[in-house]
Amino acid sequence: MSRIFVAQYRRRADAQSTLDGVLEHLDDKVTVRAGFVVLPENAFASVDEGPLPTALRDQALERLAELARRRGSYLLTGSWAEEGGPGGGLHQVAHLLDPSGDVLAAVRRPVDDQGRTVTGDDFPVVDTEHGRVGVLLGPDFWLVEPPRIQCLAGAELLLVAGSTSGTAIDSQHAAVWGISTLNTVGVAIACGLDAPSAGGSGVAVPDGFLAWAGTQEAVVSAAWDLDHLRHLRQPDLRFQETLWFGLWARRPDLYTSLADGRSPSGVTVEAGS
After folding, report:
1. Between vectors from CA 109 to CA 108 and to CA 110, what angle results, nearest 5°?
2. What is the pTM of this model?
3. What is the mean pLDDT of the chain?
4. Which residues contact 65 (CB under 8 A, 6 or more apart)?
5. Domains of the chain (ranges plus CATH)?
């Protein structure tokens, strides 16, 4: 059994100070052989400040890779703004590092003219010794389809570099558990404490929250029991042991009807109905 560590913090006066402070805190809190470490969206600077300087971006990747190597963990770097990539312009980018410090997966999303991160249609899922893992940014996580798509691709744990809304943190707290329950998946979400995000980081499984940071600076952790998650997904048609198989089970024969806008009875389904 491994552990998941989720970092929640306020950014310091500048990106370099934030990086230094976060690495010092993680080095103190994250134990050897941690399974996963997760950082939030806008990990070191707001996207409003423009792209992270190249030298600082490279330093962040190298120092986080060194932490992954020292602790033998998979590490989601959180996201930061970079110039370039497909189509040019500003992008939010997050990397999943493996225990050797190499980039195992990356998520890249354009930033629009209003400074908002755009959703995408590529949702990486990778194999690790701690289970099959999906990587998401916040704008995708809060939609129904991306987590479901990753779970259909076999994801057993979702690592999310996210953010919350200060006016809806209780609802979003409930939604994290709801996403975990309806997909029978573990969720480790890191959210910052700088406006408009208001914290609410944690680790959830269908049984409930294993750890939750509330609205305070913290590195929270929880045991990750892959065998238990797989048990919840086992067929149990009489529901004698678990409830969740009924939520995890699928009827692929209905997908065509959903895709072409018709219900199984042939009635047209209007958008938003």
Report:
1. 130
2. 0.91
3. 90
4. 75, 97, 101, 102
5. 2-233 (3.60.110.10)
